[in-house]
Amino acid sequence: MKKIALSLFAILLTVSAFAGQKTVKVSTARQLINALRSDTKIVVTNDILDLTQTMLQMKDEGSLPFDIEGESIGPSAVSEYDGPSLLVNYCDNLTITGAKKGIHIQVTPRYANVFGFNHCRNINISNLKLGHTDAGDCVGDVLYFEHCEEVAIEDCNLYGCGVIGIEARYSKNLKVNNSDIYECSQEMFDLYHVSNMAFNNCQFYENGGGIHISESCRGIEMNNCDIHDNIGSLYIISSPLKISNSKIVHHWGAYSDIVTYDNCTLDIEQTEGEYPDYSDEYEEEEEFRGDEFDYSEEADWEGRDYTLNDMEDVKDFEFLTNEQKNMLFGDLRSLVLNYMEEHGNYGNNQDFEEVYRTLMNGEPLKITANELLGYKRVRSTQIKENGIYKYDFFPCKFTKEADLLCFNKTGGSQRKWGQLSRVDDRHIAFSGCWYIGGDKPTYFTDESKLAVGQLVKLTPSTIIIIFPDENDFEIYEFSK
So what's the architecture of 12-278 in CATH? Predict the structure, then answer.
């Protein structure tokens, strides 16, 4: 009886929250953007709206805030690599719905979110088809939520690209009902510090990746869902996921010991699987890879035990400065910790806390080359003076090349390729280059793209590469 009373109270609260809304009918992108305010029900009447050109026009007019610092209320835009991304800030009690099912809202930039919400509460999105006109490969979600509460998505189609269908960070009490997520180039959904999120009667299909849930999530459920025709590892998760009354067909690897099934129909491969290499989309890069490298795993790799003097005599390292060579043998972990303490004015930044805890995990453990071959996903964290920036997981591969072990980040726009050389049994040096997806790696032919780093194993399941830059650091964190 008490549970029923509490449920009725929750329903009454929800009805009450949306009862005070002012209804606004919109038929243009400008009208839609201007109506993104608290206590508003927006009814989109036009069959299709493209937000991008309108946002650029509003930027020129000064009628839409761009790249604001500090708090802002209502709609704003963030300048991404190839165009603006819409962001709704500090709005409560907002509904965006189609006048009929399938009203289409799209954006052109591949790196932009279709809708982003920051510090919003009681958000209802329904009867919409949302996505991008072109495919992306790095960032660019369909829906993005940060510090949001009480979110409902109903009767929507979220399509790729979107790299990710739904990304939520530091948010709670979200539900997705009767909706499809399809053709996204990476994850179906990506959750980070999220509590209480449910997917009910949803379909997930033809996506280029699976489900990513960080170790800081709880109360994540999927009920009466249909998951089929997706590729890549189905689960990249560190928090429990409960799946009930659902049908799953997946032959790309669906291994996880923290997923529980209740009354599900399963046709899955219970292995870790092989993540697809999206660089196949780039003809030039594939031709380069085939011409230059043998990715056969038949060759033996016994490690190359270089000393600093030995490295000076190796042609592969001829562009390294003495400072860079010394970094490969120094204590880069302590260097990053000192840097973070020196420039750590990040407020209560949870990303800072997580990176700091990771680096404080004690002295590096012994590591072998063969164990690296099992890691197929990598996430970049950039540590700068003005903040810490964490990116999504992307595919990568460690491969044997004759007597060398090589690493290549094969997904995302910003990538690194190079060789790994043993310093000692606890430190491995990386030397190579950075490059943009679609381009050829210019390994030691373009000094401006040189990249060096140090690979260490901090716990049995935590392997990272630390890349020192001119004024900051980048960390690669690996996952199987």
Answer: 3 Solenoid (2.160)
At 158 the pLDDT is 95
pLDDT for the residue numbered 130: 94
**Which ranges of the chain have pLDDT less than 50?**
1-16, 272-316, 346-348
Buried b / exposed e over 71-96, threshold 16 CB at 10 Å, is: eeebbbbbebeebbbbbbbebebbbb
Q: According to the model, what pLDDT value does residue 182 have?
A: 93
Q: What is the pLDDT of residue 19?
A: 62
Burial class of residue 70 (count of CB atoms within 10 Å of its CB; 0-12, 13-18, 19+)? exposed
pLDDT for position 391: 75
CA angle 431, 476, 252 (to 5 degrees): 110
Q: What is the pTM of this model?
A: 0.62
Domain ranges, ordered by start, for the chain: 12-278, 280-479
pLDDT at 323: 63
